[in-house]
Design goal:
243 residues; alpha/beta; Aminopeptidase; two-stranded antiparallel ribbon; 8 helices; globular
């Protein structure tokens, strides 16, 4: 039993656990809402306390909200050292469970970046991108609501449009062909992700601290989390995600 292991071993095991919460819908078809809860040795407010907070707020909001699709909230452990939690989750799925997952929404580092983005799509060996229907549909919803969220710039060969950061918990789902929508705040204006023009990367640095972020970017915390929360709620109200 882990209860009889030395303290250090218990802690090592604890960071590898995934936490799952399932809200039943009318259908067995399932949308995964994922956010990793480990950090890179920082306070982890941006990366990824922000994603966890958006997912938790939504889970509380959806408790008494009827939905067509079943929603499974997955709080992944061990994203930072190599997406071990999300990989283990995908590897544990039965064939039926895989078939039932129609969409994965990944929420990672949505607090400090200068711009709010949506990513999606699978990059093929020839550099073309397919499986983009979900992210383009999400973007249409963004425009209907009037949120200040955008797709990444086109023209970057390393990150073919409309994909973005390759390394996060959407990747294992993407690898088996499950469509994903990835929420991330960043700054791609110069062609590569720098997060903020003023301070560069906030994630993975000592600047990933709530006091610092609020002092440097007045109003950003509330506005950004509110925008992504509104979008997530709207996406989960849709009942026609199946392609």
């Amino acid at each position: 039993s882990p209860n009889f292991l030395p303290l250090g071993v218990q802690l090592e095991l604890a960071i590898c656990e995934n936490i799952l919460i399932t809200k039943k819908g009318e259908s067995e078809k399932t949308i995964i809402v994922g956010a990793h809860y480990d950090s890179a040795g920082t306070h982890g407010v941006d990366d990824n306390g922000s994603g966890v907070s958006v997912a938790l707020e939504n889970a509380l909001r959806m408790v008494n909200t009827p939905t067509y699709y079943t929603i499974q909230y997955v709080f992944f452990g061990s994203e930072e050292p190599g997406m071990y939690g999300s990989r283990a989750y995908v590897e544990s799925l039965s064939e039926k469970e895989r078939e039932n997952i129609i969409l994965m929404i990944n929420i990672d580092t949505v607090l400090a970046g200068d711009y709010l983005y949506l990513y999606g799509g699978k990059v093929n060996d020839n550099g073309t991108v397919d499986n983009t229907e979900a992210v383009f549909k999400a973007y249409e919803i963004v425009k209907e609501i009037g949120l200040n969220i955008q797709l990444p710039p086109d023209g970057n060969n390393d990150y073919p449009y409309p994909t973005g950061q390759k390394r996060s918990d959407h990747a294992p789902f993407n690898d088996i062909g499950i469509p994903y929508i990835y929420f991330e705040a960043n700054n791609w204006e110069n062609g590569s992700p720098v997060e903020t023009e003023k301070n560069g990367l906030i994630m993975h640095t000592d600047m990933d601290d709530l006091d610092f972020i609020e002092n440097e970017y007045s109003g950003r915390v509330q506005n950004t989390l509110s925008s992504y929360s509104i979008l997530l709620y709207s996406l989960l109200q849709e009942n026609n995600w199946e392609q």
